[in-house]
Amino acid sequence: MNLPEQTLDWVSRYFGLFRASPHDLIAERARRSEEEAKALFLAHLFSAVSEPDRVRLAAGFQAWKALRKAAPIGAFGATEEF
């Protein structure tokens, strides 16, 4: 998928994602790969999906993000991560 950087930046700001800069070290870019994948998914969502589906999928993404944020924290971080 080839998307302009400004599109990914806009989507990232709108949804509160933190992408690595192209000038960051490889290790930082690797740590931010999950955020990059989310930004790509959301950018595709807003460019290629019909409006009713887009609204439902965006709402689902925001609900999933809220659930992840509210997940209980264990001794090793979020319970599903070790």
Describe the structure concisely:
The chain is mainly alpha-helical and 82 residues long.
Spans of 5+ residues with little confidence (pLDDT < 50)?
none
Radius of gyration: 14 Å
Q: Element order, helices and strands?
A: HHHHEE
Describe the biggest sheet? 2 strands, antiparallel
Strand content: under 5%
The N- and C-terminal alpha carbons lie at a distance of: 31 Å
Provide the residue-averaged pLDDT. Answer: 82
DSSP strand tally: 2
Structural category: mainly alpha
Key words describing this protein structure:
82 residues, mainly alpha, two-stranded antiparallel ribbon, 2 strands, 65% helix, 5% strand
Question: What are the SSEs and their pairings?
Answer:
Blueprint: H1 5-15, H2 26-31, H3 33-48, H4 51-70, E1 73-74, E2 77-78
Helix pairs in contact: 1-3
In words, what does this structure look like?
By secondary structure, the chain is mostly helical. The protein is built from four helices and two strands; from the N terminus they run ααααββ. Strands 1-2 form a two-stranded antiparallel sheet. Strand 1 (73-74) and strand 2 form a beta hairpin. The longest helix is centred in the C-terminal third of the chain and has 20 residues, at 51-70. The chain is flat and about 40 Å long.
